[in-house]
Amino acid sequence: MTARHNHRAIQAPRRQRGMSLVEIMVAVLIGLIGMVVIFQMFALSESRKRTISAGSDMDVSGRLGLIALQRDVQLAGYGYGQAASPTATGSAPAMGCAVTAFDSGRPGGSQDFSFTLAPVNIAVGASGAPDTISVLQGSSNALVVGKTIDQSGTDSKRIKADTGGRVGLEKGDVVVAVTASPSLACALIEITDNSNTDQVTLNHITGNYVNSAGQSRTARFNKSGGVAFTLTGDGKLYSLGPTPRLNIWSIVNSKLVVANGLGYVDANSDSANDTLETADGIINLKAQYGYDTNNDGLIATSEWTTTAPTVWSRVLAVRVAILARGQFERNPVTTTAPSWTGGAFVMTDVDGTSDSNETGSANNWRHYRYNVYEAIIPLKNMIWGSKL
């Protein structure tokens, strides 16, 4: 019997080949390139998202700021619009008069102040800086008409009976007293009593009194010694109601703010009248009077001006514009200064210094987007008042 043996070929195991260093480096490089591309796309997407979001925020802020300013200006002149009438009898038209005023609510040393009896007063900013717009408006609930004064004392005024006496004038109302003789003069007083039996005399004393709503008050606008006019003719009395406002609009720290010049408040003890922020991201404010030079009832293109009016009955409207700025962009987005109907805005560096045009700098105004919001606002109280 022959034994058979099966022989299997014994083979050495095959060598396992891994990734070479070159392959690893190539893979890492490809991964890094992919990450760079992804992060660049993400950064671009975020940048565009921020730009769109900032543009939307800028649009909302600009529109709200313009609406707030426009609504305020529309009330300008309420309570004294007829003082601009060129046919006013008795005293000369009082519009534009410097009103002598006293406010015990102001800090010592500044309690005596003055303001212009005008619906809108534009203080032009120097060298293209933002303008300041002051808007004066009354708050009376009664039909407001000018009252004729036939006697004036240091703490009282007597109204002619044939002009309605003291009807419509209540305790607590703030009024502007005007006289044209011996020269035009205006003063602010606060009515403290209207109960004299003659039904034509009003008092404006200092100290405490009870207003028409039955509330105890301390006279804020009456100065010790009073305001006495020397009347050789008839004076006028214009009611501003119990809560008049002299709203002063300005730009502070890239914000459109407003302060009440007839309601001084310093809640934060910074020795300045408190302001209310109405819109953020606003860097400029411009305004012009619409002055009807030829008295044709229309405002021609050439009749828009920043010059203070001489005849207020011819100021039919004001034109305002606010400039809003968006967020910083890495690359310049504009080379042209934004403009409005009144002309181009004067652009400076973001910090307010002279334009240095430093490319890539966050201080360069060219690296920002801008929107301009403007409106023409008719002065209805002036238009109606001058027809009385």
Main traits of this protein?
alpha+beta, 2 domains, 15% helix, 30% strand
Brief account:
The chain has 388 residues and is an alpha+beta fold. It has helices at residues 21-74, 380-385; strands spanning 98-102, 112-116, 120-123, 132-137, 147-152, 156-159, 174-179, 185-190, 201-203, 208-210, 216-218, 235-239, 245-251, 255-260, 276-280, 282-291, 304-305, 315-328, 339-340, 343-344, 368-378.
Note down, in words, how this protein is organized.
The protein is an alpha+beta fold and 388 residues long. The protein has two domains: 54-77 and 254-385, no CATH class; 88-116 and 139-239, no CATH class. Helix content is 15%, strand content 30%. The chain is built from two helices and 21 strands. The chain has helices at 21-74, 380-385; strands at residues 98-102, 112-116, 120-123, 132-137, 147-152, 156-159, 174-179, 185-190, 201-203, 208-210, 216-218, 235-239, 245-251, 255-260, 276-280, 282-291, 304-305, 315-328, 339-340, 343-344, 368-378. The strands form five sheets. It has an eight-stranded mixed sheet with strand order 2-1-8-7-12-5-6-9, with no helix packed on it. The N and C termini lie far apart (147 Å). The mean pLDDT is 87.
